[in-house]
Amino acid sequence: xxxxxxxxxxxxxxxxxxxDRIYETGWLTNHGPLSEQLEERLKAFLGVRxxxxxxxxxxxxxxxxxxxxxxxxxxxxxxxxxATSSSLYWEKIRPIFADIDPHTWNxxxxxxxxxIEPDTTAIVATHVFGNPCDVEAIQAIADRHGLKxxxxxxxxxxxRYKGSSVLGRGDVSTLSFHATKLFHTIEGGAIxxxxxxxxxxxxxxxxxxxxxxxxxxxxxxxxxxxEVSAAMGLCVLDHVPEIFAERAEIAQRYEMAFAGxxxxxKPQPFSERNYSYFxxxxxxxxxLLKSRTRLNQREINPRRYFYPSLDTLDxxxxxxxxxxxxxxxxxxLCLPIYPGLPRRxxxxxxxxxxxxxxxxxxxxxxxxxEVADFALVPATERP
Length: 383
Ligand SMILES: *Cc1c(COP(=O)(O)O)cnc(C)c1O
Known about the structure:
Shape: globular
GO molecular function: transaminase activity
Protein name: DegT/DnrJ/EryC1/StrS family aminotransferase
Pfam families: DegT_DnrJ_EryC1 (PF01041)
Helix content: 25-40%
Number of helices: 12
Number of domains: 2
InterPro entries: DegT/StrS_aminotransferase, PyrdxlP-dep_Trfase, PyrdxlP-dep_Trfase_major
CATH architecture of the largest domain: 3-Layer(aba) Sandwich
Distance between the termini: 36 Å
Radius of gyration: 22 Å
Strand order of the largest sheet: 2-10-9-6-5-3-4
CATH superfamily of the largest domain: Type I PLP-dependent aspartate aminotransferase-like (Major domain)
Keywords: Aminotransferase, Pyridoxal phosphate, Transferase
Strand content: 15-25%
Order of helices and strands: EHHEHEHEEHEEEEEHEEHHEEHEHEHH
Bound molecules: pyridoxal-5'-phosphate
């Protein structure tokens, strides 16, 4: 079975060496040497000032809200993974959904201001599929209304915007290092901020609020990253450049094949992509279901990220319906993309989706794959 992603496991021997060290030191968790090393290397790799490692990406969001004193309500996107809004709900912050931009699929800055209520204290936006939000427009609104900005950057590992990490934007950005993400630590996450005082407060909150052996500074939680996870992270980090390159190659092949036939996410200008996902928008839901069935018959398992639109969730009512998000969530299918995805599977994905279009519209797509392959050949080497 070809799934939407496959966890990158790195080099087993290298992982074993880290595990040997854990057995030597006996240090399994609580800010051990491997998590410290991972933190330093991630800071350098991502080019960010402070990074606080956490046990997962959901607690990273919750701890960030606590540290920033977010209360009342927050404006957020209905087109994201459920944790973006369930984390708010869990912290007793009421999510207010504002609709998305139909092209970038991110929270539409033009929709935010009308949604702000007297108790609103924050904007919580997701860089959907790694595509940076319109961070300048969002920051301008936040400044005008005295709101904090939290970016759910779970998909944005390594994404640069205007020459620097997009994770440096807003008051705080969070990452998820879950096994399904581009970079992972089995389970894990991180909180990123350029504010040193805030970073210290985040560290405190992640460790029960324990300031030192004899002092507890307020109500914290346990959201520490353990050493086995850190070891996995160190192994995966060594291969991130190849992971990026292989994903980009597959994405380029898909893009060429689907251009003009299927709707795709429009990249935010001045951004670089990490291709953590490859989403396409099919014509409508029935088309999506048909294509998914056809792919499943070929043992290919794409996923519907993100479905359903979060403004439809029972426990978050009442909400105003967010029609763009609802419409898009019915159409988007994320296709398999990961290092080592067999070329044959890529071709099958392309053929199946284009053949479905073919039967629906009776248009000749038979040669599109060849056209796509041709376009990948550098101009100088074409026949
Ligand atoms: C994966 C993900 C999360 C949650 O991260 P976990 O590490 O699984 O808790 C949050 N937001 C988005 C957008 C995600 O994709």
